[in-house]
Amino acid sequence: MTAADQPRTAVPSRVLAADPQLAGLRRSLEFYYGDPDRDAAMDLLYRRFVAPGDLVFDIGAHVGDRVGSFRRLGARVVAVEPQPLCARAVRLVYADDPAVTVLPAACGDTAGPVRMYINSANPTVSTASADFVGAADGADGWKGQVWDGEIEVPATTLDQLVAEYGRPAFVKIDVEGFEETVLVGLSRPLPALSFEFTTIQRDTALRCLRRLAGLGDYRFDVALGESQRLTFGRWVSEAEMADHVRALPHAANSGDVYAVLPGGPATGGL
């Protein structure tokens, strides 16, 4: 039995027992693993974009719950995660799975060193974006978040990943305000991808939409928070998605915009 086949409830205790230094990730591991209903909803969403044998890039893999979904769908996964403890956790979870490659790096606009701002109490929101840290300071829904450490990590680009591993069917980008920088490192359109956004940085989301529209004739939908449900149920233009992002209440907090090229399986032949 591979790590991807093991019950999700077994993952936190097994990983923590294997490496006690990962105790600081207990909260993340227990939240992101062990909920079969959440796993089923995630798989249903990603099944629109991912088929058996596909290649997927998980940019900002954190502790690897999305990696688990992509593997359950039969995809090969390149998981890119700059936080050393998180990358170590993903390696342990999928240690027996040759279809998962873990890169301990950030993804950006160029290769080279990148400074990460670490939130040791809540590693999920560690970031390479100083602007994100500034936007969160004192904002409703973000009070109490402290970025109390800094580390330097290596970075690659989406173009370099494509050159090394091949063209992915889907790319998930969740890098806490650094999404635009990741997309600058992509020079050719890919069939489908998602990028996270927050309501404290709507302008970043709008620039991501413009960047993608400049690469190809993308259409968009969005899933708010951890709902794993697309809002529109149809593929909309950049302008309509931009208006939607602008109109969201602050309390919506975050979501993932999904982008697809016409003619792909996710669009139903749009």
Element-by-element helix/strand order: HHHEHEHEEEHEHEHEHEHE
Structural class: alpha/beta
Rg result: 17 Å
Number of strands: 10
In terms of DSSP E residues, the strand content is 15-25%
Model description:
This protein has 270 residues and is α/β, with parallel strands linked by helices. 33% of the residues lie in helices and 20% in strands. The protein has helices spanning 11-18, 26-32, 36-46, 65-72, 84-93, 130-136, 158-165, 179-184, 202-215, 238-247; strands at residues 55-59, 76-80, 100-103, 106-107, 112-118, 149-156, 170-173, 192-198, 219-224, 254-260. It has a seven-stranded mixed β-sheet, sandwiched between helices. A three-stranded mixed β-sheet has the order 4-6-5. α4 links the parallel β1 (55-59) and β2 (76-80). α3 packs across α4 (65-72). The longest helix is centred in the C-terminal third of the chain and has 14 residues, at 202-215. The radius of gyration is 17 Å and the shape is globular. The N and C termini lie far apart (39 Å).
What keywords describe this structure?
single chain; 270 residues; alpha/beta; 7-stranded mixed sheet; 3-stranded mixed sheet; 33% helix; disordered N terminus
